[in-house]
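1st attempt posting a full record on here, be nice pls
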Amino acid sequence: MVNWQFWKRRTPARILRLRPRGELSDAVRVEFPELAPDVRTYLGQAAYLQLGYFETLTRLIRATPDLAEKEALSLAAGAALRKHLALLAEIREEDADPAELMEPFREPLDAFRRATVGARPRETMLTVHITAGLLDDFYLALASGYGERGRRVARILRADNDRRQLAELLTETIRGDEEWRALLSLWARRLVGDTLLVARGALLLDGDGRGEAARAVEPVFTALMAAHARRMDALGLAS
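the predicted structure (as tokens):
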């Protein structure tokens, strides 16, 4: 399994709070010790994640002959690119070089994408829907610790992801074929583990991650999984 603990060398600089957003419960509001990275580190990874979604989706466009599917993929790819470019603008507001801030995350996040790409286009579509949903929620939770910069990033992450048509394609496949339902349900469960490792790797947890700080973050991951379960239910899959 790929080791996603690639922020451990960074110095914690922010308080992490989980604020409500869309699918997240309005009752969730969690604070815990300083486990989040400095704002430049945060922006660098958030920007590279969006670039990764864009790259995965554009590869699917090239590999998909159906025009309706190309449209669905193009909408989602365009939304990811817009978010990526908006995050690059925030990095430049920090008087930083976007490429320099993203570079530390290229190797581990490319490894994550390779580990979660599907053998078939529908699996890869589900990969984007599941992993982007979980990680966008997580980085939105992190954003609340960065003051005005975080509020601007939150607005970027809350922007329409244009994945509705993608979700509709997946739903049609699942409803029309029990074998696909079983396969995609299994695939989604495999995706969650690696995706949560990426999120945990963004936090500075001591040792093996089972200390007091680790226990403090559990409500955040509980909320993320509740939102994930609702996304799965909407597709017609069991989480």
